[in-house]
Amino acid sequence: MQVLTTEVLFYQNLKGRCNDKTLAIDPNYSDALNGKAFALAELGRNEEALPIIEKALETDSNNEYYLSTAAFIMYNLKRYNEAKNYYNKALDINPNLKDTLLESELKAFNLVMG
Question: In which domain, by residue range, is 26 found?
Answer without folding.
Answer: 6-113
